[in-house]
């Protein structure tokens, strides 16, 4: 398609799709109580459906085996014998009764699951404000003390064993928050505020994704939820609150100047600099994230360069424009971004 | 069809009618294709010569400095693509253009939805206005907005007074709209301008 | 002087003594100009805008005639007050901020000299609310003026030659200056504008002789920047604490937090305290700045020599509706609760008329002078403003009938106090609005707002109201409804006449006690200026006003904004669609006197 210096790196990026080695992304391996309740309900429904399925198959098989073997000359049975009729009616009534009972069981299961989901204890919760954009996640960690609020994007860290309350907004179209290992889905609807609560009971890296079609890159709008032991989480949060330091390396300083006077600062923010725009992910600690472009690429300098140079080749339709910079400038910017841990 | 027509003629008429219907439908769809075409990753074209700065402008958003120099432009002016114009509308808000120009009515900056164009309404003039800035307070966005996005903004700005084909212009806004949708704005021919008004 | 009856002179002297009784004489550092002058837009350091002249009174005001006029040649809002000292009148225009000096001893508007500071044209693009200038100040033979692009200039009053010029504001960041400088104790006090561009607000004191910066007090940030130290004793608990200018903001947000000091400054020579208000926090979208957003939308009392903060009160903590706190603080002594209290009177954007103890910052009363839906009252025990949750804004959700709208119950247009009637004359608005906020980006040099507004008239359908308010009885004495917002200043005189102008060009004189219209004159353009009165070299009393519509309210005319966009002009255009039918753009100085 085009020949430029970044082609090899770009091809490498495209060739190696993001691997999620330890990223749990399985509703049947719940890592927290919410997902566990949902999984239980699911297993109940599967069990009942399986039993019903087998029963129906068995009934079908029996009906086929017991089908009357009539000849062409056999006269039609106009009035079945009353005894058979009563037997059939009894059978149907029993089956109907069993169905009703099973449905009631599922209903009760569903209601009690809902109650269980709603009764997650919420003391000492972490409050996250999540806004869905096309096609990335904006996260603000709220705090009653305003100067302890911090912003991040696409990668949430939560403490193990503490509830997390996520308030959901959307900036443009309907998205849906879904981290299968931790909880069910909840839509982010523009003009409305929703809330979802979950708790991670095991440390780990849990992949989430947008679960409501939201445009061309809906499939590549992933979310990383990393559950950490409380001590590590506190350290991570403190690190996130720190503004970006001035880089020492001259190439990185040049990159910073390009960032702050160029196209980057029109959309991105870096705490501690004059860049404070909110249209695109906050980059204050971008180098500390495992993935970029909402989980589309592993966070390596090569991928970062390819992404900055031409995001449209990786995520066509993304709102980040191509920055067709000279290689020197591009590498300087990447060098600066790599200092933002 | 009445029985006045012999049946073979009737059959021919029906066939012709069907053919013409197909042709008409094809034209309609073709016109729609142009509106709906999205070229996300076009071949880069040489950067516009006008991107060489004339003089150091007074107002440059962000940290003062030349900004980011592009080696090529990732897009050209396209006022027929609804996507490009819609992106222009989105960027108009993202880059705070609406802070000075409101939704076309003006505020600190002049109204963009009326017939008065101080510096010209043709795409090249509007491009230059955004890239170079203007003396009475329009900032210069050279090096700060990529050329391809500036062309999107140019298309949107022209749509504010109905100067682009209205199929491509944005429709009703969500939220507290201020002005009628751009697609419903009747073309306002610029005063004292040779520019051809889009249909 | 011999033409005038001695009785008149005695009455003027009595009026002067009444004023002097409000302020013991000892604290004045320099000899005052004579009482026939108008040396600063607010007339005096107490900001009373009250003149002791009484030649024009309720019986003869109907006979006022035009004495002379002068076209300023500008097309933007003429918000300045003509300044008169001795026999010279000084008029500052909006951009390009030409300063005219008129020799009042010669007939007509004889221009003695003209000073043209040549401010940067690009400043016009970053001035939120028209390219206005609210006037100059005179002291000790010099005139002090601010230019739109952020310079404070000292000009020799006799010759018009600049003496010093200090550059204070950076237009590239969106910083401008529109306020009138205030001179006190050898310092020229000035403040910046630009909260809508994310500019951090400050008040700066320049040395009157040299123009060098003596001190600067920011409105946000660490205590050292705000000049908060051991002498700071705010009255209420929510204003006490360390570095509240940082901790009541999200991290670093105070750097783009607004709080600009673009309004009026007053001074109490006995307490030796300077009073001024800080503007709204930035951005307008409140969800981006949770916290009280100190020290915006409030009033500071400072020591003018050092700039140290003595007390602070926040009119509108965590402001939701662009309720700047910069309106004038009129210093008067009132009989409250059986004793004389030194108070300040403040008609705020949020619609309350505050009476504060000006020594401590305690709120003695806060009563609505405008129609209010956004708040439920001021809790006098805690000093807190109680917000109405139904009018809180959240991204993506329009809120309707926000009253008062962002232009407030009263915007910058200054009120006047009459020590004779004991009433405060408030030129005000009756405007509500629908608004929607959304997340916005800070990009230096571009607007930092994040709100779309549509203003409309308040209940009753009229858009302006001129109110005479009794601060002791805490209610209106009388008021006059006006078709347009009353965007001009008010003037009160010892002849018991009050003056103001309307945006469709009627300059009016009313009986100060009853509100009865005594006289009106139709000027060529709408009026947003500040009326003043002075004694001319011939001994007659003159009244001067600038016409020329503009400012935020008049931007539809001065900026040729398009009314089809209801959100244009910061939402004001929607409420002023008919203004162009009543006035075009221009500017004239009018001076009236009795025949």
Write structural notes for this entry.
The complex is a heterotrimer of chains A (341), B (199) and C (595). Chain A is α+β, with helices and mostly antiparallel strands and 341 residues long. Chain A folds into 3 domains: 92 residues; 112 residues, Immunoglobulin-like, CATH 2.60.40; 89 residues, Cupredoxins -  blue copper proteins (Immunoglobulin-like), CATH 2.60.40.420. Chain A is built from 8 helices and 13 strands. In chain A, strands 1, 5, 7, 8, 10 and 11 form a 6-stranded mixed β-sheet that branches. In chain A, strands 4-3-2-6-9 form a 5-stranded mixed β-sheet. In chain A, strands 12-13 form a two-stranded antiparallel sheet. Chain A is elongated and about 100 Å long. By secondary structure, chain B is mainly α. Chain B folds into 2 domains: 32 residues; 138 residues, Cytochrome c-like domain (Cytochrome Bc1 Complex, Chain D, domain 2), CATH 1.10.760. Chain B has 5 helices and 2 strands. In chain B, helix 2 crosses helix 5 and helix 4 crosses helix 5. The two termini of chain B are 38 Å apart. The C terminus of chain B is likely disordered. Chain C is built from 6 helices and 38 strands. Chain C is globular. The N terminus of chain C is likely disordered. The longest helix of chain C has 17 residues. Chains B and C meet through loops of B and strand 28 of C.
How many domain units of chain A?
A: 3
Assign an overall shape of chain B.
Answer: elongated
Secondary-structure element order of chain B, N to C: HEEHHHH
- Order of secondary-structure elements of chain A: HEHHEEEEEEEEEEHHEEHHH
What labels would you give this structure?
heterotrimer; B: 199 residues; mainly alpha; Cytochrome Bc1 Complex, Chain D, domain 2; 2 domains; 5 helices; elongated; C: 595 residues; five-stranded mixed sheet; globular
